[in-house]
Amino acid sequence: MPYLVRKFLPVSAILIAATLGYFVNNGGAVGGTQERAITKSAATAAGQTIVGRASVIDGDTIEISGQRVRFNGVDAPEGKQSCKDGKAQPYACGRAAARALDEFLAASRPVTCTFVDWDQYGRFVGNCVRADGNSVQEWLVRNGHALDWPRYSHGAFSGQEKAARASRRGVWQGDFQKPWEWRAAQPEQAVPAAASPVGSLVGQSGCNIKGNISAKGERIYHVLGQKYYSRTKIFVGKGERWFCSEAEARQAGWRKARR
Fold first, then answer.
1. How far apart are CA 225 and CA 93, in angstroms?
2. Which candidate, 75, 173, 171, 165, places its Cα nearest to that of 119?
3. Residue 192 phi, psi (nearest 5)
């Protein structure tokens, strides 16, 4: 073997090894930036947390910075689920739970969620607290807007559930079907992880009051639970908008929908 080859062979081997190591650690990308999105491996390895302003999807699911977060160990009525109140009258308990959650989170932002697992729909399952430290799951169960889900909680929120039942709060005021039983009785449907469901509660701003402009040019806002809320679509290019509070909507010149 020529002298120069023998002399520089160890140095070349070191350079090649270092280069290969760089590619392995950086996913094969040269000069690439670190991926900011929360990945399953990163969250699992590091006990990842998500912090930010939460948009309510339903009574037990929120979205923070584009990532769906499912509350760990609790189950709230589904958006289409109906329950009966203390007078045996049906009401939209799923929507009621979502409204209550939205008001609770709005009182102390941001929300912090600590990773527990990933569910079958690709949602980040976590334990979440408001900025003031109050547990979101405990509050939901204690006020009857969600149930302790023993399959995943191992009874962690059973005390809050007993208190809600004794006080007849939320769904405990009347008759209802446990959310997991209600879902099992429905036709099987796939829930996409990335796309927002029909009738999503929020706009990109994270606010959920719909400021619509009628065909007659009248400015009308719709709040969650009103008759035409889910049908109302917001077209920002036409001057329509989302509001974070009714006071904000009224101040901007919108009036509340009558139904």
1. 10
2. 75
3. -65, 140
Structural contact between residues 187 and 116, judged by C-beta atoms closer than 8 angstroms: no
pTM, two decimals, is 0.60
The answer to whether 59 touches 94, Cβ cutoff 8 Å, is yes
Cα gap 50→113, rounded to integer Å: 5
| Distance separating alpha carbons of residues 222 and 17, to the nearest angstrom | 62
**pLDDT tens digits along 215-252:** 888 999 998 878 888 788 887 667 888 888 888 888 88
Number of Cβ within 10 Å of residue 208's Cβ equals 22
| 180 three-state secondary structure | helix
Name the burial class of residue 55, with classes exposed (0-12), middle (13-18) and buried (19+) by CB atoms within 10 angstroms of its CB: buried
Start-to-end Cα distance in the chain: 90
In the chain, the amino acid numbered 12 is S
Tokens 């001057």 sit on residue: 239
Determine contact, residues 74/140, Cβ cutoff 8 Å.
Answer: yes
pLDDT tens for 113-126 read 999 998 877 789 99
CB neighbour list of residue 141: distance below 8 Å, 6 or more residues apart: 74, 147, 148, 157, 160, 161, 164
Bridge partners of 100, per DSSP, are: none
DSSP state of 190: -
